[in-house]
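Ticket closed. Logging final result for Elongation factor G.
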Amino acid sequence: MRANPHPHHTDQLNDVRNLGILAHVDAGKTTITERILYVTGATYKRGEVHEGTTVTDFDSQERDRGITIFAAAVSCAWDGHRINLIDTPGHVDFSDEVERSLRVLDGAVAVFDGVAGVEPQSESVWRRADRYGVPRIAFVNKLDRAGADLDTAVESIRERLHGSPLVVQLPIGREDGFVGVVDLLRMRALVWAEGQDRAEEVPVPDDLRDEARRRRRVLEEAVAELHPVAFEEFFAQSAISAATLTTALRDLTRTGEAVVVLCGSAYRNRGIEPLLDAVVSYLPSPLDVPTIIGTQDGAVFERTADPATPLAALVFKVSSTATGRLAYLRIYSGTMRKGDTVLDVGAGRTERVGRILRVQADRHAEVDRAVAGDIVAVIGLKSARTGATLSAPEAPLLLEPPTTADPVVSVAVEARRSAGSDRLATALARLVEEDPSLAVRTDAETGQTLLSGMGELHLEVAVEKIRRDHGLDVAVGRPQVALRETVVRGVSGLLYRHVKQDGGAGQFAHVVLDVEPLDVATGFAFRSAVVGGRVPREYVRAVEAGCRDALAEGPLGGHPVTGLRVTLTDGATHSKDSSEPAFRTAGRLALREALRACRMALLEPVVEVEVTVPEDAAGGVLGDLAARRGRISDTTARAGAVVITATVPLAEVFGYATRLRSRTQGRGTFTTRPAGYALAPDEQLSR
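Final structure:
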């Protein structure tokens, strides 16, 4: 095994790996990260999640809850390569944190539980990685547990993720007796003796020799089918050499055509060194990923990962620490030095780089510069937010920010003592700056301050952060769901005249609108059917902008409006008094009036719930879901458990975790993911 007890940093881009650890909650991501840091010599003591001594879960809440909440970046070295590693959360409420990390990673290790195989959230992060085209390798963890089986886990990867898993290891021993792996590429055995941190290389055990040969053959055949060079060698020699296999596996991983599967038990420190070797061998360096694309004044440009090109970097996380504001960024091109002035392209402001830190979770090592391909933290940026692009002032380039999902659950928050209101406002502003998937607004009708997020746990963690970090006593009200309004039956030919004469230049705009229902998923569409130039093109754009303004508040309860198409059919202008502002106002007021004339209905957010329960509790759980207005879409039996998939209104999911625990004696689990909006029953308040 190629240990590297004295990490040295190298600026050779070829030797850098930026990767994330992805998985379902509780599959062992954080333990794997801890073991990687330990094996590479970055830490000298193994951190344990259950003891609350991990490096990456350094937030007090993460230690209390035993889960990862905030993506943490760490850096270590292995075999002459620098590995920048992001331990991402697995809980669904923090999926936005995963999304932001995937945006800046070149590769990932997907971790699966050796007993459960592919779980709902591992499927969801896998799909996200597909969307960003992130190459990944798989690690089947917890092989020392009762019921763990590599083949079953690999089969679930094939079935549920539609990947082409290529298994490169054979476990030695089952469950409690799991002591090592056979490396099918080099046909050698690696055994971890009890209490030993390093693997010992030994010949393949006699009783596994035939099975190892058979599996090596299966691997060669699978690779030959997918890789032309390997196919030629296999065809000519009816075998593939270890060197060709390694090259083929690297190519197939990087194109996403196949997934290399390794196995082990992170908790027992078994299988970590081969995993690191696989990361170095198969996952891409910053030079292997496509060039970054950005825009400048509407034109599209490419930048290569070269320290000599102008700087382009993306801020993917901002956190406030005792020492100041920390911005985590991925540098895509150019070099950033301490003291440099950089441009926040989106905001049009310049910022000064105070200090550059190589991050070890909550500990940092200061460096003078960072180059293309690096993931570092910077102190000194006063206003750059998550998703901001930093570039060289003389060569601005705007990179696409990570997408942020709309928050779906809200709670009312207020300081228990009136003196704390201003401090609460500051604390909330800081929270939103750190986590863009949170939103804060004041309800115009109730005057409540509403904090919105991706789920109950997300909001619970946010409120707890305010209590701990700012010492504020905060009262929290029942969550309110974000309703929408939609058009059920439209109107046509609604004429609206906007005429204003009050000294000076007047305002004149006539518009005629048709409003019709549209699929809620599409949201809003606008088109012009005006003929003969009766409304000039720039005024048409102003009418559309006005209509969009009117969507902010619907007639039923002031909720945002979605699911409608507006057609501008006619209009009239005045040679002097018509202007873009006049037509924008006309568009806004016309659509408001039209919506009052339409038949409207309320929409409520719905979520897809996947509940895994023991067979004996399935009946009660199905009944409970039906009582919560759930529509069951699928039930499948899986290894003594039943997996129920249903679409349930979000308002009915509050408190479900507690109910499910009591119905299943704590054995039931569930995950949710947003599934859009559906008509709210009994509340189709037509007008």
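The chain has 15 helices and 38 strands. No further action required.
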